[in-house]
Amino acid sequence: MPILCNVRQLQKKALVFKGELSGQELDLEGFDDCIKLRLPIKYDLEVQLMEGGILAQGQWQAVLDCECVHCLKSFQKVLAQSDWSCFLMLEGEEQVTVVNDCVDLTQPLREDILLAYPQQPLCEPGCDRLPEKAGARITESSQVQPSEMNSSVWAELNKLKL
Ligand SMILES: [Zn+2]
Fold it and tell me: How far apart are CA 92 and CA 137, in angstroms?
């Protein structure tokens, strides 16, 4: 469910939005080959009407399933922002889209989560290890027929044992 904030209700009082959004709902799946969002993002936001716009502030937390760009090891990274805020203009050139009196807060949240994504995920700072699965990767990428596949895998394994 997108985070839809009703502007009419907001005229009466501040609203609280608390819940979870999946990577699919945030359209963050497949955005980066090395980073997956298997667990939903948690958010807790308070939204209020201000002069000329809507102010949303609160916190969110995401657990990223990353693959180290160096050693290809899988690891998890927690991204969190405890003082997140955004201002959506209700008038002027950068006016936000209002559909059925509602403003979608999912989009600004998505953008800031993306900004917080690590550019080159590393399992630890300065990781310079080589992938453990190097042999297997070479076999996968070389163009062998399926029937030849097994023998070449064994050949690779034998090389490793020596
Ligand atoms: Zn690594």
Answer: 54
Calculate how far, in angstroms, residue 65's C-alpha sits from the geometric centre of ligand 1.
Answer: 13
Distance from Cα 128 to the centre of ligand 1, integer Å: 7
CA 11–ligand 1 middle distance (angstroms): 50
Per the listing, tokens 């359209």 go with 27
Which of these ranges, 26-40, 60-74, 101-115, 125-139, has the smallest mean pLDDT? 125-139
Distance 80 CA to ligand 1 centre (A): 22
Q: How far from 111 is each of 54, 126, 138, CA to CA, in Å?
A: 17, 27, 36
Per-residue pLDDT of 121-156, as tens digits, reads 999 999 998 887 655 554 444 454 555 555 666 666
| Contacts for 53 with CB less than 8 Å, ≥ 6 apart | 87, 88, 89, 90, 91, 96
Least confident piece of the model among 17-26, 27-36, 91-100, 121-130: 27-36
Cα 140 to middle of ligand 1, angstroms: 21
What spacing in Å lies between the alpha carbon of 74 and ligand 1's midpoint? 8
